Batch of 4 targets.
Target 1
Amino acid sequence: MTFGDFETVLELRRYTLHPGRRDELISLFEREFVEPQEAAGAHLFGLFHSPASPDQFVWLRGFRSMAARRAALESFYFGPVWEEHRSAANATMVDSDDVLLLRPVVRGLASPPPGSGVYLSFGASPSAFAVFETEPSPNDFPQLPVRTDGPFTVSFSRSAAPGSELLEPTARSVLR
């Protein structure tokens, strides 16, 4: 399997954090959660903060299939790393339920064009290097809610479009 195979099922996760706690969560997340999730079968494409939203953490997690998603989430969230660190992570969060479950329309997260900064748009963007739409399969890991008020189209580009949001990568983000 290649890096691009993890674009089959994507979670766009947008966490609202208690004021001033974003860097604390990012530090914990990058130190404790990246490798164990990837060992479980997820791929963490992007870890971001938004200059426009200082109390938000945005991240992307990809899977090879819905079945692989369920297996990876069960392995991680029922495992020892989450058990040890979940209280510290949850203490930074006001809301962790703004989650979209997506499938690709145009693949491109694995090989974005050169440049810096990633712009997230809800809707089609003419300059998008990757476009996703709502995954119609039911959420088979109900312990982690996903939004059902869609459908949604999500675009990633290197340039701003009306209504887009600049995402700046953290130190461990693969998508830069």
Target 2
Amino acid sequence: MLTSAYIDHTLLKPEATLKQIDQLCAEATEHKFATVCIQPCHVKYAADKYSVRVCTVIGFPLGVTSTQTKVFECQQALSDGAQEIDMVINIGKVKDGNFEYVQNEIEQLAKLVHSSGENKLLKVIIETCLLNEVEKQKLCQIVGDAGADFIKTSTGFSTGGATLDDIKLLRQYSPKHVQVKASGGIRDSNFAKELIQAGATRLGTSSGVALMKDIPTTSNY
């Protein structure tokens, strides 16, 4: 069953204004969405002004900044009031087979997030559209071993978004304690329900209000 508690109400467009952030937070409050997911520059504004749970993105959208940079970004976001962190892995390191680098990076952010207070969560964006099946399966194990709370399909800014097959794969190969977040291209309630049935426990979408009203949209995220 699709409920508002599944939804990270998302606005990550670079041209987003404070007026739009206000609208996002008001909608999240009204519909009781799980979080608002916004760029780091808006975290303090939203956290100070609204009672909504704030999620932000780190190393977004490419994942290619250094580990030290991601750690700094994460620390700043937590200090500003973020309660959930969605980090992007370094996909090039995956392609190089350097899974030790990827796991170490996730571990550092997981420790930072979890040490900052209760109920703080780390989600790991693996950008499934750029990976093969073996890489996806390996990352399910790594995300679990590194201590993250969620594995997440997509940024919504690459060549593809969430698919049912990917959600099924991530749920099958991830440890039980790791939840699955679907994101990218979730535009109608039927697809959202199918993703939940396949194993997703969180949906990242800018179409949260439309999903609750069962109105199809054309948003990419």
Target 3
Amino acid sequence: MPWMLLFLAGLTEIVWSFLMKQSLGFTRFWPTVGTLTFMACSFALLSVSMRTLPLGTAYTIWTGIGALGAFLVGVVFLGEQLSAGRAIAALLILGGIVLMKLSSTP
């Protein structure tokens, strides 16, 4: 269960980062409300998963899911550049997430 909560925390991090971009520096009301709502959900899910999972593992995987997801959302939905270097960097983040999960005990 803590792994599922951590995964959901990472997904909600992707949502709030996208909504933060849409808020245009917190100048648009509904994207700002969405940002704060999903941010609170993400932190809450992360904190519950940390009851069982080690800090370093949980935080690294949470930020990795958020970073990789935000990168993909930027490329797919916002038209951001996909270069070889950025793709390799994303694959390295994914590799780090997988290795962190595989090397964790709980």
Target 4
Amino acid sequence: MSNIRLSAVVVAASVLSVLGAWAIPAQDKDAVKVENGLGFAEFRGYEDWTLIAISQNNGKIAAIVGNPAMIDAYRRGAPGDGKPFPDGARMAKIHWTPKTQEAYPGEPTVPGAQHDVDFMVKDSKRFADSGGWGWAAFEVDAAAGGFRPANETDSPPQAHDAKCGFACHTIVQDRDYVFTEYGKR
């Protein structure tokens, strides 16, 4: 191959690479929101929050984590102490499809592909008409390389606004709308 032809191929590959990066940009997850504006940006850093508990339901396994305000409230005895969680308390529930860890004896169940993430934030002024809490549920969107707001076609079906969890959580109104028990250590 001549030097001119090789140079043309290298230039064409470089141009296609740059154009491809522009055509399919990585998702800025902080820009993803549900209706009423609640989104990832308000939960920045949730991946490093303290573990509240683990759970298993609907065929998924989950880790429930909280920001410092949430953890402090749990440690003082919330929700059983009769005091509400403070404004600014945040929690995230990260769901995975379980898989078997074949390399470990007994083949325990461990997290596989992430399925979704759900958020809750206490803001008694902003969410006064939903028990003082705002909710957001986001499904993993593999095609986009990120997340999308959950909707009625998902399993389980989800409303896709900041009140999406209110109807379900009213059965724990006496626990300040929080299901999760803090895993004592």
